[in-house]
Write a structure and sequence with these properties.
By secondary structure, this protein is mostly helical. Helices cover 76% and strands 0% of the residues. The protein has helices at residues 7-36, 45-48, 52-78, 88-119, 123-131, 141-169, 177-208, 218-229, 238-263, 265-269.
Length: 270
């Protein structure tokens, strides 16, 4: 998200970047979801991309909202001082706000994707199955809201701050943005993964069990998971998720600048 672009421009860049990230990293997402639910991972690549259309809509929509809302929040915080660099606290606040808003759209879409991965059904049939009980639409929203708020901090707020710090403190080792992008992605992914993992596991288990045979409410699901294996139960699939998040932070941190400059060169040059 850029403070130089308006809401529509940020939204279009965000949607493009989100879809690109999903198409590249969907297998990581599939493996993570199956591991969290203690389901067998199928080695057939066709299984890896089950629900990819829903996930493209999910990530495209969420990233679009995150870029648009985050960009607007940055503009509001900066006010007339458009060339000022945001502080870490300001960046984090913008990221939290953008992520929380995006969960309103992302949670139902991710529910459809997870159900498709479990059942192998088509998108329309899965939507019909979920819609039989309207209360299912909001299932897992609390976990999604916390996850997206912290995830936005990990890929939108932290990498620019880390890159600037490295380039200013160690100019010989990190002479430009590209040189500092890898450590920024590693640290941003680490933050986004391990702080959000318990909330993501609870959300995934709830959305995978819409029949509520094992997992009930958010707190009930947390109790069941803790009873199964203590704290490690909340970190099932963390390896796959961290791998995906490091790659995602790197891709999205690079692509948001690249796509912004390609799509709206005049606005970025202003």
């Amino acid at each position: 998200m850029s403070s130089k672009l308006n809401e529509s421009q940020n939204a279009l860049v965000g949607m493009t970047v989100g879809v690109i990230e999903v198409l590249i990293l969907q297998p990581f997402n599939y493996a993570k979801n199956m591991t969290q639910q203690q389901q067998k991972i199928n080695l057939n690549p066709l299984h890896w991309y089950r629900g990819v259309a829903s996930n493209c809509v999910n990530m495209g929509s969420c990233t679009m909202i995150q870029f648009a809302v985050g960009g607007k929040l940055k503009q509001t915080v900066l006010g007339e001082h458009v060339n000022r660099r945001l502080s870490l606290k300001e960046e984090m606040m913008c990221g939290v706000g953008a992520g929380t808003v995006s969960a309103l759209v992302g949670s139902p879409l991710e529910l459809i994707m997870i159900q498709q991965q479990r059942t192998g059904g088509g998108t329309l049939q899965t939507i019909k199955d979920v819609a039989r009980k309207p209360m299912n639409v909001g299932r897992g929203f609390n976990g999604m809201a916390v996850r997206e708020a912290l995830w936005c901090c990990g890929y939108l707020s932290l990498p620019p701050q880390i890159r600037h710090y490295l380039m200013e403190t160690y100019p010989e080792q990190f002479p430009n943005n590209n040189a500092a992008r890898v450590p920024a992605a590693l640290l941003g992914g680490l933050f986004a993964c391990y702080l959000t993992q318990p909330f993501d596991t609870i959300k995934t288990c709830m959305q995978g069990d819409i029949e509520r045979q094992t997992f009930g409410t958010f707190s009930q699901t947390a109790k069941v998971l803790y009873g199964q294996n203590g704290l490690p139960a909340f970190y099932r699939g963390a390896t796959f998720r961290y791998g995906r998040m490091v790659c995602a932070v790197f891709i999205m941190d690079m692509m948001k600048e690249t796509m912004s400059n390609l799509m709206f060169p005049e606005a970025m040059a202003a």
